[in-house]
Design goal:
Oligomer: homotetramer
Distance between the termini of chain A: 61 Å
Largest interface: A-D, 80 and 80 residues
Number of helices of chain A: 16
Radius of gyration of chain A: 24 Å
Number of strands of chain A: 14
Strand order of the largest sheet of chain A: 2-1-10-11-7-6
Order of helices and strands of chain A: HEEHHEEHHHEEEEEEEEHHEEHHHHHHHH
């Protein structure tokens, strides 16, 4: 199996096309290091001392029959979906936030299912092409991101109605050996540390929008690709080192400036009727991943709330109990919805399994609608210190360290270092640029509540409920 | 299989011990008729035209191997739990509210599991006694209620500390052939139309509370038992007949005034260490039933909201979509939690299966915390007419009927009768004594949010979450 | 000053035009008695033992200079508005719910202000006509209702677009001596016990909707007027008499079947540009009244919650404190908004004072958005007994009364009668048809949250806030 | 009047006792510059082009009769309180967040009222001492902070029960000429740019806690005082300069390491019965200030939401209207509560006016309970870009700037720079360390919701509400 070291070296060897704050940078830039640590964890997990984790990460390819990393696996049954969900939760508990690599596996599964359906209706051969791509991906244990969200321009106008047609990524030229695409994808997590960019549509297209109905995968350093990247990570620590401080993420605007995609890497090319289905499929698999990672976030918020209550000696209060149970309820309702979505999954024409769309979306939506409330609860119990904690250096300066250690004390039997470590974590977790950013991604990442609203409204049988009511009312139907 | 007719006749033959509004009444009292209609539905369901419903209601006894009604069945696997949950939802969609009979089956399962555990620890033979009781119950397709909640007196004091020791039901005398019990159980749904009263403890007991640790089952008209009963049903209709108006429920305070319980009907008698476990077990099975019935309530509220929006011609509004999706989310999160609870059930020492306690409780809690919000949403879309709808008679009086039919019109292509029927249903559903009562039972029935809070807090591994946080913070453990 | 007795006799002498449940009834019908009790209180208040109340109800007419009942007064300054708000709260604390008679005074003030504005723009003489009407109203201490809300038909269509033009009340004929109107007004509180019906438009009208732009006042028994009425009151008590059980309300659909309105009673007749202003003015004065009555509702809910906690002996719990403070906050935020609305009132061209529209609407909206939550909080602390309380008769039957008195006990030093009285009140207050109805009127009465939303959005300077933001961002404007 | 320049020079001349991140720094440190800009604004406001602002900031001393800055004024009537509230809102709209200097004026007013009350009861002469201090403060237009919150140690223990008695600031020695104090105050806003530290107790004290009952004022660079300071400010801008980016704040832990306070600067010294009253008074005046500043925060959030909706071309959506009205309601309910608190203020024995405690606290509490919801609403409408906006430099790099300007476009008629400026502001406002910190201070600053809960519960007549209920229920009292 591939080692994290190999992955890093491969990423470092990519053509220099990442921009950060006005400069073209190498992928060894320290602002990308926390992201690399996170992605590396998915390789290291194969050797994790906890056998539960090792077992979760290991999958057997239904293509090659070989052992592979689950982050490259196609879900061939309920058990695969359950394991992916649980693996996501377990690994996110280790990084403290995101595990990043679900992007790639969710894109793989979406295209695996979707290309088969296109072929069935249109007589195309996307699925075979894609099968080869999956084999390559699994064989080489690739790290890929999923580039879905277009920049979208004026929100009242469709792709074809925009003043600038490039505001949705589109095919600008078809050639015998491939296509030329132009446009941009925004908010693309982990693109700057990915080897491959997997591109899928962002929405339903109409008949006159063939040019915008496109899906493909290319190496991240393909000619014409520019990544304009924002690093996300906790505040740097000088001395109070802690695992949480080492993990991070990044988001990019990916510019496709007349980028050539060879035929064997094209998975949708003008079949506009399937743009919506592919968009939905990635969203569905990705929202299912959220039913794993979001409960992990809540686990950590809950753990911080419980621990700070313990350190303050107020753990037994009825008010704390209610607050913790509110957090438990959020975590486990979302996780339960993911479980139900997996247990009620169905087999698609491709043979891969698709999670139940209703349970998956109510789960993700519940998470998105509660992340602010979760921070608020932690804020309530932790008090103001998480926002006014003196800077790290002051805890090490000879003139101030004893004073701070004296005055940070809560329960007398908990050492000042522990108190400091906990408040530093809470501060980094919720009172930092990264912490604030997680609020936003907690709402919008993988689909804003409005997107789940649309998915639910479009896939739920409201008419059946009207019939139930008509019967009760004695209204003839 | 038993017919509804037989059940009714049996109930009508019971000794007259039901009191309503100051009078001792027969069980043929018209205020009990709606409850009988509801309970009858569980027998009629065996002949329901919908095969899905027939199949759900039919179970095979693991004791006798015979076909039985699922409302008397012991859940011997995940599938049984799933079917009970779905059956409950389907039948509640027909009555519009409660199906009542889950009380009995939940009590049976609780005692089935609990008596086995007591015997294992204490060398008693409760399980064998109970097995015979279950056989009798299944064989005769009995309707039983579960009498759990004590009146509880001063809420700060334990059973043994109350000014009046009877404020929790207790054993006042032990005899060779049985025991004498005294006390009362409150809020007991369907007691007045039950053949059997199944009595279980309401809480954890301590060593000095042996007298209060008691469980048993007796016929509802046993000497010394008095039922003081409140009927619940929609406003009576004179002409605008509708299925919803025919179903109802009832609650009783059951007085046990020196009631004799023979030995073979005693299932806990002083083993105080198990009082809490039995209380929890009934609550658990019953809360799992709620993950079936509460989504049905939401189905109906959602159906009414969608239909009234259709009749008003505002169905396409973004605001209506959000409101409906909020309702969908409540229904399906609760149902998903019930599914997860069933899928993650475990086999008990008795061989019966116990639902996962965490998922079950987060599901029931979510339902209880949202019922007011659901009514509020329906109120928002339906407008004030549900509270000011003229009385039924005015729609039939020659001087006023044409006027009301003229002025009740919303969409011109929906007949006034349909408009009337829908608003009458909504009015009866949320603006009636019964409707208001469902709000209260939606919160407190089968366990108030505070009870689920206690169950969750006591059964969730918060320490594990603290460990996760300590690792992230670098706090040695 | 007029006596309640005189008012009742006058009402009883009106032509029989009230329909209830299919029958034409006298106004002495017992279902109207609770409403008459409520309205009578506004007369009795002049002799209330509490001087604060007497002082609040007494006003001096700016027209005649005589002492009048404040429910007929035109607000000539901030102090008048403050007194009306406080009077409303105090009197509603006595009835337990609504005081009804604000309808009339709010309509009077709206037309007083509005007619003056019309005259200024259109050269009409509505204000002089109306001044005479106010004099008559004050002199005779009249009880009047305000008929504003049309039945409105298809909610997507304007008055002039409806399939049936009568779905908004309209002028069908103009005659030298007056007009003939046709249509209906719905949800009209206290119409059946009013001497006068004051009719105002329900919304903005456009140029082609002159026929629907009409305001007037007529005696409640005018030829062609039919009231189809729904009585609202607590469950009747046989023995456990209590003030709360004696007060009530009623709502009517008022049919105007070719009703003649003489010229001196017409206050808007085709000036469509002012329909919206009149609608807004009544809504504004009436919402200001809500900032008085709604806090009274919360006072009572809060009092019940505090008292039931005391009787259960859980009053000192942190959880109870939070719950009570939540209720305090609702009551006092709404009241504070009403105060601010009065203190920031401005003088209109008529000389009467108009409350600040922003504060008034945020106050009413806050009340409407919290009434369900208030019931929910009371439900939470009161527990299930309010929904399962045995019927009154059972507390008086020789066979059951001692048992119920024994088992209803909470704190041992609070008598069973007190326990019973409190739970009966709570049950009647929130678990009855009337209680449920108050939830709906709490949301929709005097303007649904959506109506306050529209009023606020249309009257708030959002552009100013954008300018503030542009300055902060450095965006040129 | 004093100029900002003078104030800055004075601050720069203070003894070096500020520590930041391990270093002893000058007050010219760039991390304090944004705070100085904010405080300077209170001087510059005297020359603000807007006469409304000039008028608000100008007050006339009731002591000297001279014109002074309102931030040093004692409120001698309702009008003063109203002006302070409005001034606070207006100035916070300019900085975008806090105006800082209310700390000093709120402390002045609290001690002005409180010292008079102590003297009346104890025959002390604190008020005269304090009057001299106020004169000095007004004369020199001093900038002072209020050091109230102790570090508090174990939250279950009182000051006298802590393992370390210094966990609440205390008197360790009394001398003829003054006292020596030891301890620390935490979360002290603007201490590092203050000339004076005004110290008041944090809570009620008991008889054996005389040593902790202490209030005084000293220069910020008094011997023994150490400020360990955290700067708070928006991300630095290199090119896209904007007013918002120039303002900031700072919080300090203030260490009092055996600090001498001379007699004329001591305002409470052992009179433990008044510790709670002083704590409450500062909290009350400060919470009243919050009813001015918090609405300004909401104004800005509302303005950003409205402007981003305009730029995206979705401004007319019903959903946007509701969201904006929710924000309007939060801002204006809080402001209305502040107005009501001012209008219902009462004169204290000192002659200064004390705001109504109930209205003030419901206002501040409402603000604290909604700040997370406000960010959430802005997040909802702004979408993910505020969290993934490329760094400023990328908008100026020749290789990327045109691309970013192309792809950031929303409405085609709004320039990319305006789009960029708005999203940069939103990002800085809610997705930065400062932005996250404002969430925490929005909840806890000036009193957490729990503190308002305590203030309300202790100062509200719940018993009166019980009496109302007893009357309605017919319960004798």
């Amino acid at each position: 199996m591939r080692r994290a070291e190999d992955y890093r070296n491969k990423v470092f060897s990519l053509r220099k096309n990442v921009f950060m704050d006005g400069e073209l940078v190498e992928r060894t830039d320290p602002r990308l290091e926390p992201s690399l640590n996170t992605a590396s964890l998915t390789f290291d997990a194969m050797q994790n001392p906890d056998p539960e984790i090792r077992e979760l990460v290991l999958a057997k390819s239904h293509i090659s029959g070989k052992n592979i990393n689950r982050f490259t696996h196609i879900h061939m049954g309920v058990d695969d979906l359950l394991k992916k969900q649980l693996m996501t939760r377990r690994l996110c508990q280790i990084t403290g936030t995101c595990i990043l690599r679900c992007m790639g596996v969710d894109a793989l599964n979406a295209l695996y299912v979707g290309t088969h359906e296109i072929d069935q209706k249109k007589g195309t051969d996307y699925h075979q092409r894609f099968l080869k791509y999956v084999s390559y991906f699994q064989e080489n244990d690739i790290v890929g991101c999923c580039a879905q969200t277009d920049v979208k321009g004026n929100r009242k106008l469709r792709p074809s109605q925009q003043a600038d047609p490039d505001l949705y990524l589109r095919i600008v030229e078809k050639r015998p050996d491939g296509i030329i695409v132009k446009g941009a994808k925004a908010h693309i997590t982990m693109a700057a540390i990915s080897e491959e960019l997997i591109v899928v549509p962002t929405r339903v297209m109409t008949k006159d929008e063939e040019a915008w109905a496109v899906a493909f995968a290319i190496p991240a350093d393909t000619e014409g690709v520019k990544l304009i990247t924002l690093g996300k990570f906790p505040p740097k620590r000088a001395k109070l080192l802690a695992p949480f401080a080492t993990y991070g993420s990044n988001d990019s605007v990916i510019i496709f400036d007349h980028v050539f995609v060879p035929n064997d890497r094209i998975f949708l090319c003008g079949e506009w009727e399937f743009a919506g289905r592919l968009a939905l499929l990635f969203a569905l698999f990705h929202r299912h991943s959220y039913t794993g990672c979001k409960p992990a976030i809540t686990d950590i918020i809950m753990g911080m709330a419980a621990l700070v209550a313990e350190y303050m000696d107020i753990e037994k209060g009825a008010h704390i109990r209610r607050l913790l149970v509110d957090l438990i309820s959020i975590a486990e309702l979302v996780f339960a919805a993911g479980l139900a979505s997996a247990y009620c999954a169905h087999k698609t024409s491709s043979g891969a399994w698709e999670p139940n769309i209703v349970y998956c979306n109510v789960g993700r939506r519940h998470a998105g609608m509660n992340i602010f409330a979760e921070y608020e609860k932690l804020c309530e119990v932790a008090g103001g210190l998480c926002a006014t904690l003196p800077m790290e250096g002051d805890f090490y300066n000879e003139e101030t360290k004893d004073l701070l250690n004296k005055y940070i004390m809560r329960r007398a039997d908990i050492s000042p270092e522990k108190q400091h470590r906990l408040f530093r974590l809470i501060s980094d977790y919720i009172v930092s640029a990264q912490g604030a950013s997680k609020l936003i991604s907690g709402v919008h990442g993988g689909g804003s509540p409005i997107m789940e609203e649309i998915a639910l409204y479009g896939n739920y049988d409201i008419e059946e409920k009207k019939q139930i009511v008509k019967k009760l009312a004695g209204i003839s139907t």
